[in-house]
Amino acid sequence: MIMESEVPEHLKCPISLEIMSDPVILSSGHTFDRSSIQRWFDSGHFTCPITKLPLPLHSPLIPNHALRTLISTFTPTPPLTHHHETLISSLASPSSSLHSKHDSLRHLTRLSKRDALFRRRITESGVVPVVLSCIDDDLLREKALSLLLNLSLDDDNKVGLVAEGVVRRVVAVLIGGSSDCRAVAATLVTSLAVVEVNKATIGAYTHAIGALVSIVRSGKGREKKEAATALYALCSFPDNRRRAVDCGAVPVLLQSADSGLERAVEVIGLLAKCKEGREQIEKFDGCVRILVRVLRNGSSKGIQYALLSLNSLCCNSDGIVEEAIEEGVLEICVGLLEVDNDKIRRNASILIQALRSNRRGVNC
Questions:
Q1: What band does 3 get if pLDDT is binned at 50, 70 and 90?
Q2: How many CA atoms lie within 13 A of 40 on its CB side?
Q3: What are the beta bridge partners of residue 33?
Q4: Disulfide-capable partner of 186 in 117, 226, 266, 281 (CB 3.0 to 4.6 Å)?
Q5: Topology annotation, domain 4-72
């Protein structure tokens, strides 16, 4: 077993000081473990932890495959135990009963949830096509989706799963599955969309974005929230914003935001970046009122995206500027300059400038 002291420092995350399991590169050129840097961003920081310099908005996290390969030499994959091999054999055997397959999926899902090495062994066993085929069976569907979700936690598997044909089956579940299965399928889309090429592939797949919009419109509870989260992941890719607008996402998302689904505001923040999205948002009666309500009562992340949305809208519409000023946005933003969150302060400052500039007839 490799002792902690034997692990080179460049394989350890600068934040957690532990060996990285999912190394990603920031635009600053420095590498961190994905979970550690994501917590850094979620806490409101907008700088590189090492250089302390500001990062671009929506700074991409680029998988460091070379370093990941090097790390794997310090964390060798243990062989599957006889019990694990039996579970995989039972799942893959055409003669196994549905009950046996379900039991195997249940155990494999539990074992793979927190064990990256075990996930690697499952993938290397060649059983993924069998798991995909299990989605077609009503009894096995939810467990198969859950196992695929676990496998997708590793970046090396994300592109491979899409290449194996997971998108077709996931979209079918989004359209016609049970509420619980739709929730897991939407979460799987979010996980797969961490990789940029998958955002393009999934977004271009017929009915993928439309199915997610339909769930946000008509779904309940968890499936609705997970579908909105999946839309957010996909719409960080510019081409998918127009696709979402064409699927009628804007009114659906604004109605959901008005009903308290804050994740919908985050998607609106992305759609407001494209001309088609802004046009649809402006057409929605009460859009400014909804965003102002989030500014007053939302979480830190909700406030960030309400500010982003208003920035995009105010820089392109005098009518929105007038409405925003009437709703007290200028005063709210002045108050937000005092909060302990870099992103909120920065976006509030930009919006103040946009409102004041438009008052004087100056474009953003």
A1: very low
A2: 20
A3: 23
A4: 226
A5: Herpes Virus-1 (3.30.40)
Q: How far apart are CA 319 and CA 304, in angstroms?
A: 22
Burial of 363 (0-12, 13-18, 19+ CB in 10 A): exposed
- Report in angstroms the alpha-carbon separations of 354 from 44, 194, 311, 359: 23, 32, 7, 9
- Residue written as token pair 């690697």: 120
pLDDT confidence bin for 360, thresholds 50/70/90? low
Q: pLDDT of 93-130, one tens digit each? A: 999 999 999 999 999 999 888 777 788 888 888 889 99
Q: How many helices (H) and strands (E) does the chain have?
A: 22, 3
**DSSP code for 19:** B
Instruction: Using the structure block, give the residue that is written with the tokens 């102002």.
Output: 292
| Contact assessment for residue 317 and residue 325, using Cβ atoms and an 8 Å cutoff | no
Give the start-to-end residue ranges of the domains of the chain.
4-72
Question: CA-CA distance, 319 to 205, in Å (whole number)?
Answer: 36
pTM confidence score: 0.79
Residue 2 pLDDT exceeds 80: no
Q: The tokens of 31 are what?
A: 């590498």
> Are residues 280 and 250 in contact, defined by beta-carbon separation less than 8 angstroms?
yes
Instruction: Tally Cβ neighbours within 10 Å of residue 283.
Output: 10
Both tokens of residue 204? Answer: 């271009």
Q: Is the pLDDT of residue 9 over 60?
A: yes
Tell me which amino acid residue 286 is: G
The DSSP output letter for 288 is: H
Contacts of 244-250 with CB under 8 Å at 24 or more apart are 244/209, 244/213, 244/271, 244/277, 245/271, 245/274, 245/276, 245/277, 245/280, 246/276, 247/209, 247/210, 247/213, 248/213, 249/209, 249/213, 249/216, 250/277, 250/280, 250/281, 250/284
Q: Distance between CA 128 and CA 149 in Å, rounded?
A: 12
